[in-house]
Amino acid sequence: MIKINENFLELQDSYLFATISKKVAEFTKENPNCKIIKLGIGDVTRPIPQAVLDAMHKATDEMGKQEDFRGYGPEQGYDFLREKIRDNDYKSRGVDIDIDEIFVSDGAKCDCGNIVDIFSTDNKVAITDPVYPVYLDTNVMSGRSGNYDDKTGKYENIVYIPVTSKNNFVPEFPKEKVDMIYLCYPNNPTGTTLTKKELQQWVDYAKENKAIILFDAAYEAFISDEDVPHSIYEIDGAKEVAIEFRSFSKTAGFTGLRCAFIVIPKELNGYTENGEKVQLNKLWNRRHCTKFNGVSYVTQRAAEAVYSAEGKKQIEENINYYKENAQIIKKGLEEAGYTVYGGTNSPYVWLKLPDGTKSWDFFDKLLKEANVVGTPGVGFGPSGEGYFRLTGFGTKENTEEAIERIKNMK
Ligand code: MLT
């Protein structure tokens, strides 16, 4: 008899963005003439920058030549890319990272999901609430969640750290001891940030409690404020307590190309049952080499071009385009009388719904009356109830039209 991993039965409904797609598909079928504007999932709309395209064309041609052809590459990524990451993302900010602390992959979603493999199922997991659903669901799948409580919308063994307007979206330390702490800053979904001082407190907390911070920095390219760290390693002591996830998806428009990386410093240890230290870098390397055969050569050359002078310029233009969209959404909604958060160091705008309106009710109303798709806050966790997320990743024309339609809603 084939037995299943019963942890999967603890998962709630379908994956959030799959549920939304299904609802939109049903609506479209019933209303084929409606022009729907999608500001739901954080998917980019600007085409791949020319410098990146040129690098891909060149690499593709190389693959067709006997002398340049490449088969399997190093599982951790080619040195040409890891060196660029080290120099541009870290050295330039005064952070010393070795290339063998960088692992190139096909996406931060996969990295965030796969990282749980190297940790004991006994670890207590803390997530901010609302949260990017991948952190929670992958811990449910791997057996760290316990049972789901319908009344609270929470799993019994997960520690939820509310981040709402009540605490100005700054997470407070959990009352009970936790081992794995997920932090995503600039935050998905709220679009809010932590200052260096605030993040320092979390690093100190993790050190004191022998906990690890799983730091998702997928949206760092959107930071404009000086006081907001781009990498957790800008914070003293972070190399001893944090793994960082980075992505080319939102930075360089790679949602369809797929390339990301994870940083695991050699100073970072986990512990065996007997309290012996084990380098997490070694464990991850072992896992990565066994389960992953590397990102394609062409894609890694594309990622390398992100760091060229031309690439940087073109990418900055795209980021500014999305940031302007986020501002259009923020200002437009404020004019319409909504209370709005995020949208400044982030592509995401987090909207407080009026008069106790429920997130999914607003989703339905927005789809029906304005033909605009957003993401219901409660889909990111119970503390997201009464909130709603819109993204700046659409086209400018669609963003402006969507805001006009929302303003005109009754
Ligand atoms: C989001 O909309 O939250 C993200 O695009 C999802 C993702 O990056 O996987």
Task: Walk me through the structure.
- The chain has 410 residues and is an alpha/beta fold.
- The chain folds into two domains: 6-46 and 311-407, Aspartate Aminotransferase, domain 1 (Alpha-Beta Complex), CATH 3.90.1150.10; 54-308, 3-Layer(aba) Sandwich (Aspartate Aminotransferase, domain 2), CATH 3.40.640.
- 36% of the residues lie in helices and 16% in strands.
- The protein contains twelve helices and 17 strands.
- A seven-stranded mixed β-sheet has the order 2-10-9-8-7-3-6, with helices on both faces. Strands 13-14-17-16 form a four-stranded antiparallel β-sheet. Strands 1-15 form a two-stranded parallel ribbon.
- α6 (196-208) links the parallel β7 (180-184) and β8 (212-216).
- The longest helix has 27 residues, at 309-335.
- The model has no long low-confidence stretch (mean pLDDT 96).
- D-malate binds next to loops.
- Give helix % range: 25-40%
What's the CATH first level of the largest domain? Answer: Alpha Beta
What is the chain-wise order of helices and strands?
HEHHEHEHEEEEHEEHEEEHHHEEHEEEH
- Main sheet, how many strands, which sense, barrel? 7 strands, mixed
Oligomer: single chain
From the structure above, extract its key features.
single chain; 410 residues; alpha/beta; Aspartate Aminotransferase, domain 1; Aspartate Aminotransferase, domain 2; 2 domains; seven-stranded mixed β-sheet; binds D-malate
